[in-house]
Amino acid sequence: MLRYTISRLLQAVFVTLVMSLLLFVLIGLMPGDPVETMLEGNPSLTPETMAQMRALYGMDQPLFARYGHWLYSAFHGDLGYSSVYFKPVLDVLWPAVIQTAKLLVATEIISIPLAMLLGALAARKPGGWTDNVISLIAFASISLPGFWTSLILIIVFSVKLGWLPASGTPLMSDAPVGEQIVHMILPVVVLTFFHVGPLVRYVRASMIETLNSDFVRTARAKGLSETAVVMRHALRNALIPMVTVLALGFGSLFSGALVVETIFGMLGMGKVIYDAISNIDFNLALVGLLLATIVTLFSSLLADLAYAWLDPRITLK
């Protein structure tokens, strides 16, 4: 297990390096000049000053030479400065990471119990009306795009009814906790709807298989109620591999959160990355996208390790 873990970690590091190069090249080929954007509106700007600033920030060097300098600095803890905020990119990203983490934690807290409940209810009588209704909701969750669902909820609950704010972030950064929760309701609802569908389908399929197992028949033969059989025996065993599904689904949930944050104007990673790309903030866009890649990559790694740990029948090679 230790050798397998080390091997997968080394693979993850290699993939991260490759992705950093690809992102650096792609962002470097985007139209626009970060130095020109940074100095835009300066009346004393001259071509000589522009050339000096480009030399100062290394923008006059070949693309791969700039990547080498960036990678060297990154290994020494310097990820560069934002050309828009004029401060280290980590200082800009950290509050956004906290905001995104709050959104993801709230979504997981709601999604996991809800998926377990709906999946168990659907599996009790496959093909019944309860199963059909829950399956329809799950298919809608999987099929409908998150941005469309977000816009519909904004139109209904913010524009038409005026019950909830359309923005996911309060105007004041030090707003009371209650106000912050109110602003997060719509984004969390969208992400929960987006996340719960695949989980419900998995729990349902796993529960149907488990309910036909010998130990479940034995529990029924002992006279246990159907609720006790489902909740105390079948559900517990059906959810053992759930850890791997959650780990794999976290990368998808994280990607969805970036889109939802942008739509709701939340000051999370999605909004920061979107603004960085729009404003040609090279370093901020690069580090933000790389961090999103690392989160997705390591969620997949966690799924592999969890599956190998939970199921000893898996041969680690």
Q: Can you walk through the features of this model?
A:
The chain has 13 helices and no strands. The chain is an all-alpha fold and 317 residues long. The protein is globular, with a radius of gyration of 24 Å.
Q: Which key features would you list for this structure?
A:
single chain, 317 residues, mainly alpha, MetI-like fold, 13 helices, 75% helix, globular
What do we call the CATH homologous superfamily of the largest domain? MetI-like
The CATH C-level name of the largest domain is Mainly Alpha
Q: What oligomeric state best describes the polypeptide chains here?
A: single chain
Biggest β-sheet strands, sense, barrel: none
Mean pLDDT: 79
Distance between the termini: 9 Å
Radius of gyration: 24 Å
Helix content: over 70%
Short description:
The chain has 317 residues and is mainly α.
Q: What is this structure's SSE topology?
A:
Elements: H1 2-28, H2 34-38, H3 47-56, H4 63-75, H5 89-124, H6 129-143, H7 146-160, H8 177-211, H9 214-221, H10 226-238, H11 242-264, H12 269-278, H13 282-310
Helix pairs in contact: 1-13, 5-6, 5-8, 5-12, 5-13, 6-8, 7-8, 7-11, 8-10, 8-11, 9-10, 11-12, 11-13, 12-13
